[in-house]
Specification:
Layout lengths: L7 H6 E3 L5 E4 L12 H6 L3 E3 L2 H11 L4
Antiparallel strand pairs: 1-2, 2-3
Length: about 70
């Protein structure tokens, strides 16, 4: 059987931690900052750990060897 390919879009957007959790950038930072509170802007910095139901799809379908 041929090997499965990792989705190129997924390897640019997600990283796997050592314990197998999926890290992703925070959502809601690209535009429209004028209507966000300073607290929202501050809390959306950096990365976040995806919920397990979402992470399962990323690991299985998009990053099979990750």
């Amino acid at each position: 059987m041929p090997k499965m390919k990792t989705k190129s879009s997924a390897k640019k957007r997600f990283k796997l931690t050592a314990s197998g959790k999926v890290k992703a950038g925070q959502a809601g930072k690209q535009h429209g900052m004028i209507k966000r509170t300073n607290k929202q802007i501050r809390n959306n910095r950096g990365t976040t750990i995806l919920a397990e139901c979402d992470a399962r799809v990323i690991r299985k379908k998009f990053m099979p060897y990750g």
